[in-house]
Amino acid sequence: MRIATYNVNGVNGRLPVLLRWLEETKPDIVCLQELKAPQEKFPEQALLEAGYNAIWHGQKSWNGVAILARGMEIKELRRGLSGEDEDLQSRYIEAVINGIVVGCLYLPNGNPAPGPKLDYKLRWFERLTAHAAKLLEFGLPVVLTGDYNVMPTGLDVYKPERWVDDALFRPEVRQAFKTLVDQGWTDAIRKLYPEQVIYTFWDYFRNAYGRDAGLRIDHFLLSPQLDQRLTAGGVDRHVRGWEKTSDHGPVWIELSDKQD
């Protein structure tokens, strides 16, 4: 089974790119972030015609997350995280697909930092961490994937010295990610490539993609039940070079069939 995550940076504006990539790679499950579309404007019909069922949590102009499944039923479990009732931002959706709990997330950026946006990011991280702990308690196969807006280490960022004050790389943000992972999650891409420079995002400015001046901010966290089934993973880097594409590249992992 191939599971992918892709920050599309506008699902309607990037729909031709998304459909081309789906046709080319045929992932079984896809988590999308930054839909930038209200609930009623999600391109459900186009995705159905491409072979994908979908659930989504939209928001006008900003945020938005979705889960797609190729030829499989999607049983939605929740949308949003508990702990802050007044939070109306569409950043989390969760479902069961083929026996796997899939959490799709778009963590806040947090800039400018310090300030209210960083405070919100850290609170959101705390809410995610609390929810993740409950998921682990159930002992089910779980994947938490999406745009975490954090580079965990200096290996995950081009010229880290330039990012020390940025909300994606500040010590308290990296510590929040580490606290989450230390519950018992596996950073799938880093497990597969422990010493390799791998990026998932390249800014539109200053020829970042051409210079490979990127960031690794899109992550797969696997519960112990899925860690044992991880066989491959990578970044479809070439998609970032397509016309009118997102500033993220799709990231994917492959899991073996469940072991009895």
From TrEMBL:
The protein's name in its UniProt record: Exodeoxyribonuclease-3
Marked site positions, Transition state stabilizer: 149
Which residues are listed under the site Important for catalytic activity? 218
Quote one Gene Ontology molecular function term: endonuclease activity
Organism name: Pedobacter duraquae
Output the superkingdom of the source species: Bacteria
The cross-references to InterPro entries, in alphabetical order and at most eight, read: AP_endonuc_1, AP_endonuclease_F1_BS, Endo/exonu/phosph_ase_sf, Endo/exonuclease/phosphatase, ExoIII-like
Coiled-coil segments on the chain, per record: none
The residues covered by the Endonuclease/exonuclease/phosphatase domain are 4-248
Q: Which family does it belong to?
A: Belongs to the DNA repair enzymes AP/ExoA family.
**PROSITE patterns in alphabetical order:** AP_NUCLEASE_F1_1, AP_NUCLEASE_F1_4
Q: Which PANTHER family does the UniProt entry name for this protein?
A: EXODEOXYRIBONUCLEASE III
Q: Site (Interaction with DNA substrate): which residue positions?
A: 248
**What keywords sit in the KW lines?**
Hydrolase, Magnesium, Manganese, Metal-binding
Is RNA-binding one of the keywords? Answer: no
Give yes or no: UniProt keyword Oxidoreductase.
no
Cofactor list: Mg(2+); Mn(2+)
The active site annotation covers: 106, 147 (proton donor/acceptor), 248 (proton acceptor)
